[in-house]
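Input.
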Amino acid sequence: MIRDALDSDFPALLALNQESVAFLSPLDLAGLRRLHGQAAWHRVVEIDGEVAAFLLALREGADYASPNYRWFSENFPQFLYVDRVVVSSAFQGRGLGRQLYDALFAWARAQGFERIACEFDVEPPNEASRRFHAAYGFREVGSQLVADGKKRVSLQVAPVA
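Output.
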């Protein structure tokens, strides 16, 4: 079941983020509270009472220091930015990421967004994320080094329509 993320989910969300931190930025409770408070869309997938996945997205105008979010802010007047999408390793392969993206795209269409933005690692490569996003029509609009030059990300957008 997809539902709104709640404050009571935060411990599970932090654990999921930590499980995939190699592909994400680190996140602590204060940071999660800030992101949740600014999120345009923050949903979880709950299975048998357990948070199995989550997606957090911000729209333009958020007070967020992420270099990737700032890049989109400087280059697009309107967007919905997927800050993080995480599926628990225990639940991978069940299509939960697709369920979250399908719900996000449907919501974005209903809200009148033109594009969804995201990024994924290309150095070191995250081939699974590249394939996943390509299936949703994402295309590269830029790239940049992050994490003190240890990673290169591909900055991507997909039309909502």
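The mean pLDDT is 95.
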